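Notes, Module 5: Reading structure tokens.

Key idea: the token line is not a picture. It is a compressed description, and you learn to read it the same way you learned to read a sequence, by spotting repeated patterns. We will look at two proteins. The first is printed below with its tokens.
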Amino acid sequence: MKKQEIKKLSKDEIMKNINKFKKDLFNFRFQKINSQITNPSKIGETKKIIARLKTILRDKTNV
């Protein structure tokens, strides 16, 4: 998800996406432990997306 895409979302949609990506991150970590992950860089990408979502959410609530 890019920053421009995130800015178009409402607060509720951002919260839903944060929860979805947190679940994905949990699953990626579980796969990493079991050596089943196909693309380990997905973990870092998912963390960055969550950070972007949280940043935009904070900006929307402070405005």
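Here is the second protein, with the sequence above and the tokens below, as before.
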Amino acid sequence: MSAPASPSDSAFLRAARGERPDHTPVWFMRQAGRSLPEYRKVREGVGMLESCMDPELVVEITMQPVRRYGVDAAIFFSDIVLPLKAAGVDLDIKPGVGPVVASPVRTMADVEAIPELEPVHVPFITEAVRGLVGELGGTPLIGFAGAPFTVASYLVEGGPSKEHAATKAMMFGAPDVFEALLAKIARTAATYLEVQVAAGASAVQLFDSWAGALTPQDYRTHVQPHSAAVLSRAASLGVPRIHFGVGTANLLTDMGEAGADVVGVDWRTPLDRALPLVGDRAVQGNLDPTLVFAPTEVLTARAAEVIEAGRGAKGHIFNLGHGVIPSTDPDQLARLTEFVQSYELAG
């Protein structure tokens, strides 16, 4: 499908604004990544964070799925811990593990030692976004940042965690330290989004991988105010704000009320059940990522169900209910993209 004349005319931004585009827009979380052979080729011998700091490589990786699939939006290739690394935090991304922090945060002194992110720390981001906007033309670019709770979890646990025990122990047992940590991460995330939008990004997504580990009460008390702080600063940028979390069926209303224009819904919650929860907002999602391994006729039938459910929303952006699985067949995603974009919305 041909790209629009400018991003503001795109199906993606029209749906995010609650308008009715001529087709359901589609993009995929992690569409730029390990499922693409061209991605694996350019990443050979190059570390993840090193890749994210190389403007030419960021442009190439971000553009790969746009060229291959003709998706309705590009997602900026980055990582949720990159702003901390750029500011000076000692961390790395270990292959097969994820972000690993040299000195986990435990005390108020540890929080105070985390440097504040300034735009001067990330000139490579500005360069990459400008390069992308020049190449994308009318296809919008989505800026990206990790939400405070998820980034805090990596800092406190020292790496990925399934239970988030140390993080919750701090939240319950040292709430002043926890609040200070999330407030600092919120400032970092907001600055990072501001840099991307200033350079030309057309929308932003705040990604909260681990928020689903919280009860609604704990989310509202300890986490929502900090996500809201990020989204509030982003509001002044004049671009749509997407808020997505994993396993957040019980938090969809609260996540929307944090300041989202678009609420991402993971695959565990049927879209028609999610719509009454998100309020007067657009939705994004939410095909089960494993369905790309099913026969094409099964995949497209389930995609049609998602599109039909999305017609009841203020606006609907088709996506998977989480990221593209690395072993996904790119040709199957191409078929899915074509199906969604050509699906008849009349009537």
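Summary for the second protein:
- The chain has 15 helices and nine strands.
- The radius of gyration is 19 Å.
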